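Protocol step 4 of 6: structure prediction from sequence.
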Amino acid sequence: MICKPDAVERGLAGEIVRRLERKGLRLVAAELRTIDEQTAGRHYAEHEGKPFFAELVAFITRGPALVAVVEGLGQDTWRIVRTLMGPTDPAQAPPGTIRGDLGLLLSENLIHGSDSAESAEREIALFFPPVS
């Protein structure tokens, strides 16, 4: 999970973590860091070559982000996080979701969550090699 730079800038990282913890998830590892361009490029590798790739990299590297590993009781923790996040576009995210309650822009949508167990493994290894 990543609380993106807009979440940190707006002081919402604590609220986002609180929502995850209220659901019963827990942080296994977390660090406030500015993601470098090389790591951002690897993180968004599936979007390389698409017209919005440079924007994604510029946004995620513009300031500090809270990168974290979140754990739950089952194997589908990533699904729970994605449900709590809501759809990517805050205008379409229902109330009660992180993006529905707190999001303002499609291009700055507060949070990233892995979209599969395989993506979670890859992203954990990218951001927290000793945890994987």
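Step 5 (inspection) to follow. The chain has one domain: 2-127.
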